[in-house]
Amino acid sequence: MKLNRRSFIAAGAATATLGAPALRANTKPRVVVIGGGAGGATVARYVAKDSKGEIDVTLIEPTRQYYTCFFSNLYLGGFREMDSLGHSYGNLAAGGVNVVHDWAIGIDRDAKTVALAGGGSVPYDRLVLSPGIDFVDGAVPGWSTMAQNAMPHAYKGGSQTELLRAQINAMPEGGTFVMVAPPNPYRCPPGPYERVSMVAHTLKANNPKAKIIIVDPKEKFSKQALFEEGWGKHYSGMVERIGPDFGGANVEVNPDEMTVNVDGEVIKADVCNVIPAMKAGKICEMAGVTEGNWAPVTGHTMQSKIDENIHVLGDACSQGDMPKSGFSANSQAKVAAMAVRGALTGSKVFPAKFSNTCWSLIDTDDGVKVGATYEATDEKIAKVDGFISQTGEDAALRKTTYEESVGWYAGITADMFG
Amino acid sequence: MKRIATYFKAAAVIAAAFVHQAHAEEIAAPLGDAANGEKIFRKCASCHAVGAGAKNKVGPQLNGIFGRTAGTVEGARYSKGLVREGKNGLVWDYEHLDAYLDNPKALVSDTRMNFRGLKEEQDRHDVLAYLRQFSDSPQDIPEAQPTALSKEVELPAEVLAIVGDPAYGEYLSSECSTCHQRNGSDQGIPSVTGWPTEDFVVAMHAYKKKIRPHPVMQMMAGRLSDEEIAALAAYFADLGD
């Protein structure tokens, strides 16, 4: 039945002669989800699970094996292997989600169809976009995706992260690792600084005279006091940060020469991790639901402010106070799943609640966290309450926090992929 | 934090606080009677020793219990949950001991202390008055502070009587399942499935009132209503083993 359905869709208009009208009459409401990460996999799974077969759910995701971006820093630090970050879609398919491994290349909002790179189109009643991030062209002069092998971003999970680890391991003794940090807003606010911690952890063991330079356009950053305390404690003298007051916002790179020009001063890099400014995954722009770099949504339902038949989740949307994170995307997906089911089958809709917690690892058994709860107001998703780890916490608490983060990884990936 | 703050102020300030905020939780109670506490402690003595030369028995010895981090007596056997709460910052001060004696499982769900609790407030205060004679550090002992105690997590019967809606609980639980697995796995994050509903309700209210020390759970429980806590308890009770 499912195999037939795919070929039926692929055949498009020609199917009229194949008894399509009869099929149409019995057609269940259709939800199409683009992007199989923390937002997309979760919403697909929850709509399929909770609608108990009343809604037809299709997930479009190009990769067969999904590598999470969250916890990829732990791979750079040697605390996880890449295999442990990979997840397949088998359980989602078994749970009733029609998983299509293909690229969505266009959206016709009037006809309510999604065009696939492999040909054909998929109709929807509700479309959920959860494509994650893309990079802003020209954000770091001298860098483009053509240069991502010389200067990896490693800000999408998988091969880029593997490349960066290989480069770190091949650094000459006493070499220099440069990170060009992104401006706000971007995916995973503590991510670049957890990465610095993990790179420092690896270098301390293998290459202790190496240096890390962060070129940062931001005045301040997430969990700054906690990271700076940790770097002083574990990696004394190894990490230097050039903030905007010393030209950190005026940076240009030369991938051929492996140099970084910071406000006129040229730094020779052995490894250069460029994390450019970000925007919503390109399909949002193609769908015409972006304003500026992101897709605005209403927090009550995660519906696009531009098209009420489209919901946008996770990093790609602009919603208010929530940080862009896998946890946030997973939280937003549950609100969207409830709203989509309510709209298509009349199931009960409860008030939207959101939460987020971000754990970061600074060194072995030295974990910290920050989190908050949120609610939907008419203007935005607004913060209700929050907490952050404190400087000077004892080692036992930091170890528990790290163990908790490992438990969270197992929890959220089970919640996403079943 | 508000509750604890009022409890450390001088008596005059406490009196003023009562004029301004008449929270039922902050009613002053008299200190206990140590002699009566010694008699009540016989209920505890099969598992706990206290006094000169006290050794660990089924439970840890209780010399110096005031001001000690939970789960840290050398050689004593503890549940995973009790050790975890100690790492989370649970220190045995008067308030937490009082809550623990009232209902051990409200504070530490999997505690090895298989004891229903002392339901009479005065009994608990008497036992604690007795025990604190064996602790040197006065910093958390009310006598060194004002002679007033805050009341522990004690839920009104009507709150415990709320019958939760499991369907609502299922929706609310989607917030829990980002960390707590529905299959009951407890690696790094404790299991929340298959709990007796009353234990679940009491534990969540203990987080909500910040008696239990975990910041994420205090935050999550902090915005749940009594009905929502009951709904979650109803849903999770039926889940898993």
Task: Write up what this structure looks like.
The complex is a heterodimer of chains A (418) and B (241). Chain A is an alpha/beta fold and 418 residues long. Chain A is built from eleven helices and 25 strands. In chain A, strand 12, helix 8 and strand 13 (239-242) form a beta-alpha-beta unit. Chain A is globular, with a radius of gyration of 22 Å. Mean pLDDT of chain A is 94; it is low at 1-25. Helix content of chain B is 43%, strand content 0%. Chain B contains twelve helices and no strands. Chain B starts with a helix and ends with a helix. Chains A and B meet through helix 10, strand 23, strand 24, strand 25 and helix 11 of A and helix 4, helix 9 and helix 11 of B.
Give the structure's gist in a few sentences.
Helices cover 30% and strands 27% of the residues of chain A.
Q: Main sheet of chain A: which strands, in order across?
A: 5-2-1-9-21
Largest interface: A-B, 34 and 30 residues
What Rg of chain A, in angstroms, do the CA atoms define?
Answer: 22 Å
Distance between the termini of chain B: 36 Å
Query: What is the chain-wise order of helices and strands of chain B?
Result: HHHHHHHHHHHH
- Discrete helix count of chain A: 11
Describe the structure using short key phrases.
heterodimer, A: 418 residues, alpha/beta, 5-stranded parallel beta sheet, B: 241 residues, mainly alpha, globular
